[in-house]
Amino acid sequence: MTFVNTSCLVVNCSCPNHTTVWETNKLYTYVYLIIFIPGLLCNTLALWVLCRFISKKTKAIIFMINLTIADLVHVLSLPLRIHYYIQQDWPFGNMLCMLCFYLKYLNMYASIAFLVCISIQRCAFLLRPFCARNWKSRYDVCISAAVWVVVGLGCSPFILMRSKSNSGSNSTTCFKDLPMRKLDVRSAISMMVAAELLGFLGPLIIISFCTYLIVNSFRQRNQNQQSTGNTKKALRMVRVCTGVFLFCFVPYHINFLLYLMVTQSIITNCAASQAIRQFHPISLCIASLNCCLNPLIYYFLTTEFKQQLSQHGSVLRGRLMSMESTSSYRE
């Protein structure tokens, strides 16, 4: 298998390059800095509340926990990415480089998979309430484990296509600067089809269909004056899942298909290659925003989550006021 210089694949070497490495690195640095603090705080708080204070493991809570873990894993790798894009140096070794590179795509596709699971479960429980009564939380655990295995294996081609093999184990490059392997046409087409169908179009169709079913159920119940709070909550949750999916992942997957065609020299037009190359880091940054947007699902759409935050926030405020009054008394 041949290694190729991505700078000459992404755009033809004879094409003018209007985007410098410094500009791309600055974009990644700023976006990851903006994402890191709120992503870390929101997802840590969400995981703490979901795991410790919500005993009722229904209403997609197990899937939300796994979605939070997927976001936290990616967020915790961001400081190393920020270091690399600022210093342009990777002193942490090849294994950690490939792990951080892999975690980016693991987070993306695990997030997509669990958004699909949340949408399906809320739709199924709304339309089949008797099924919800007999559903066990261990079923969600088994489904989540299967998702991690399938997604983990499915993301392996992303690191197989990138390697430091031709630059030595002491190379200081990582992430976007890793050389990309040149695939044969059949392998390239297979990877594009699998990524787009299984990782994007399939989930998009499923989430859209769940949204349609819930909206249709909501309209019918309104006509019969049988609409309930659960129907409205399910509709809001699936709509937010759809919104997060469309905003974060549609730009990347539209561009990914074209970008892979450019890297494999299928698209050779200079203007098209330049536009695709310039939008690629932007689409990756947009996809990373899901780490900050996913907690909206937990807070705004899960009653138990808001109740627990409100309850423990009141306890914390009471303790602070008690400490202040004690301090004032002593003075």
From TrEMBL:
Cellular compartments per GO CC: plasma membrane
Record-linked Pfam families: 7tm_1
The keyword Disulfide bond belongs to this UniProt entry's keyword annotation: no
Principal location listed in the UniProt entry: membrane
Database matches in Gene3D superfamilies: Rhodopsin 7-helix transmembrane proteins
Location(s), subcellular: Membrane
Protein name as it appears in the record: G-protein coupled receptors family 1 profile domain-containing protein
Organism the protein comes from: Cyprinus carpio carpio
